[in-house]
Specification:
- This protein is of the alpha+beta class.
- Helices cover 47% and strands 9% of the residues.
- The chain has a five-stranded antiparallel beta sheet, with no helix packed on it.
- A hairpin with a 2-residue loop joins strand 9 and strand 10.
- The radius of gyration is 28 Å and the shape is elongated.
């Protein structure tokens, strides 16, 4: 790390063992956060553990923590450089300027928890969380958690540091008596932090003798917020004396916050905060109109615009190309199957003649056709492939064949994440085909193929990324971030980018390329920004997503993208009406619901049991 390249501008935060200051990177002309820490008290073993922790954090991109750009140790001083926004402010400065309302407290608490989870996924814990370790940047649009505790000092060092920077009240009882920091000790600090923000100051009397303060902590806290009962319940849960009585992780507490609704303060209800996780239970829609109206509204400003996506870095692009090139091409039989499917004069007999040339595909089709999902109870086993295709239907057979002949990306036989992508694809394809029968100028089979292949890039992401990276992506989406934005921030590219590359590699038709590129509406484009006939197919695909997320809210319950949701758009009704679909018809939704129930029988391992729905 070249310390000389940074020009200090002004100090931002002071700690017991160091300082954080805003500095100018002379090479890039960007402002960064430069943190210096005195590590004279560390043993060589403690420094090595800290170095390994910093190495895990370096380059991690997450909206709730500053990206660690570089770090080094010179003599006994550690230097770190972090990326920050344009207008950084410590939370301690914000709380001294004015009393925070309940909406702001909930928003900051969510951001802190999100940052803690990012550290947890790296195997790190904070341990000394307090007002001076929370940084607001970009005029409050991001919440960044700074200065993570990456080593475990002795009991005396911890207490001395806490007393010097007035953070003793944030230490969990088990930390005060010498135990190491854990996930739930971080949760304890979140509760004290929420109380501090709600009451406008530190609950401890900083001038009081230290021993009574410690006795009060060990005996257990009684932090009262009289006019916000839901906030009080949050504080009580977090500051329980016994660690087992607290929420088990930052992610678990994040999922609880939206379920409790907006925090009530002085009789007023605050609006839901940004990046609110989606609801886990939808009322089953009676019509397409009901499904559209129940969906959340599209954001006023798009965090990610598919028509004008940000550039992919050279490193991310190189890795993505390598991942796609390692995928085997589709076998020739798939293109012969596609030719039959695209020929209006072809039927089940023609497809059967092609499938019968491959014994593995024949066995697969017969096995599914004779499964409980399609066989009528009491009927004899079907051994004729043409009759089996008739039982399944041409479009369902197409999806089954693609799933079988596609290279086993990401080890499809054992990966729940891969099976979740295939299940979602076949469910969307099913709904698109059902809806297309009601529409004018829509090719039924193309609609099914578009539904089958629109998210194919997600298979590349599953193959290309390590498990811990997929987990970080899953949590971003579970916390309410739009999936394209989450993918780009975490991976440097999106499943649209990966899907386009794979479509070229597999020599898929140009119409499929277009729909892969433009299938995120209204998160990406308004209806009038699509060209014909992409407008109708896009609206069809989007309507299918709105129906699926409400008819099967638990579908793909173990997938990376399980929690992602689609938003409604004001122009959707007009386009569907112009295409001839009556959005108020209930019979269509009832038919789709029955067909989805049949599809679920083929993916029993992906549907969470009812008793798990409250704890996904």
């Amino acid at each position: 790390m070249e310390i000389d390249r940074y020009q200090p501008l002004y100090p931002l935060q002071r700690f017991a063992d160091g300082v954080a200051e805003v500095a100018l990177d002379r090479r890039t002309n960007h402002r960064i956060l430069l943190v210096s820490t005195d590590l004279a008290a560390l043993t060589p073993e403690q420094w090595e553990a800290r170095r390994q922790g910093l190495a895990r954090l370096r380059g991690l991109r997450h909206p709730a923590i500053p990206t660690l750009l570089d770090f080094d140790r010179i003599d006994t001083t550690e230097w770190r450089s972090h990326a920050i926004g344009d207008d950084p402010q410590p939370l301690s400065r914000v709380t001294t300027d004015h009393r925070l309302d309940s909406k702001q407290i909930l928003e900051i608490t969510r951001g802190v928890l999100w940052g803690l989870h990012a550290l947890e996924t790296c195997g790190l814990h904070h341990g000394q969380l307090h007002l001076d370790t929370i940084l607001l940047t970009d005029r409050g649009h991001h919440l960044l958690l700074t200065n993570p505790l990456l080593y475990q000092p002795t009991r005396n060092q911890r207490i001395q540091n806490a007393v010097r920077n007035h953070s003793v009240g944030y230490l969990a009882p088990e930390l005060v008596v010498g135990h190491p920091a854990t996930i739930v000790s971080d949760i304890y600090a979140v509760g004290v932090l929420a109380h501090t923000m709600a009451t406008g100051g530190n609950w401890l009397n900083e001038s009081a003798p230290i021993k009574p303060q410690f006795r009060q902590i060990v005996a257990g806290l009684q932090l009262q917020v009289h006019d916000a009962p839901q906030l009080q319940r949050l504080i009580d849960r977090c500051t329980a004396r016994h660690p087992n009585q607290r929420p088990p992780s930052a992610e678990a507490l994040l999922r609880e916050l939206p379920d409790k609704g907006a925090i009530i303060h002085s009789g007023a209800q605050s609006p839901p905060p940004r990046h609110q996780p989606p609801p886990r239970h939808w009322p089953k829609p009676t019509s397409i109109q009901a499904a559209i109206e129940a969906a959340p509204p599209a954001p006023a400003a798009l965090p990610f615009h598919p028509a004008h996506p940000p550039a992919i870095s050279s490193a991310a692009l190189k890795g993505l190309k390598q991942a796609v090139e390692q995928v085997q091409p589709l076998p020739e039989i798939w293109f012969r199957i596609e030719a039959i499917m695209n020929d209006p004069s072809s039927g089940c007999d023609d497809l059967a003649l092609e499938v019968e040339k491959d014994p593995i595909l024949t066995s697969h089709i017969l096995n599914i056709a004779n499964s409980p999902a399609y066989a009528i109870h009491g009927n004899r086993q079907q051994t004729d492939i043409a009759m089996a295709i008739t039982r399944l239907g041409m479009d369902t057979t197409q999806g089954l064949l693609l799933e079988k002949v596609a290279p086993q990306i990401g080890d499809a036989h054992s990966s729940l994440a891969v099976r979740s992508v295939w299940m979602h694809a076949q469910a969307i394809s099913l709904i698109c085909r059902s809806l297309s029968t009601e529409l004018r100028d829509i090719d039924n089979r193309l609609a099914g193929t578009v539904g089958l292949l629109h998210d194919i890039g997600k298979l590349i992401i599953i193959q290309h990324q390590p498990a811990e990276e997929l987990e970080r992506l899953r949590v971003r989406i579970a916390c309410g971030m739009p999936e394209l934005q989450a993918e780009y921030d975490q991976l440097g590219f999106t499943h649209i980018d990966a899907g386009m590359m794979l479509a070229l590699h597999w020599r898929l038709p140009r119409s499929i390329h277009q729909m892969i590129a433009l299938h995120h509406h209204p998160d990406g484009l308004r209806c009038d920004q699509y060209s014909d006939p992409m407008r109708e197919y896009s609206m069809l695909l989007h309507s299918a997503h709105l129906l699926l997320q409400q008819l099967l809210p638990a579908h793909g319950g173990y997938g990376v993208w399980q929690a992602s949701i689609r938003c409604r758009s004001d122009d959707l009704f007009a386009v569907l009406d112009q295409a001839g679909l009556r959005s108020d018809t209930e019979a269509i939704v009832q038919r789709i619901d029955r067909e989805l129930s049949r599809l679920l029988l083929r993916f029993p391992d992906l549907i969470k049991p009812k008793e798990d729905k409250e704890n996904p």
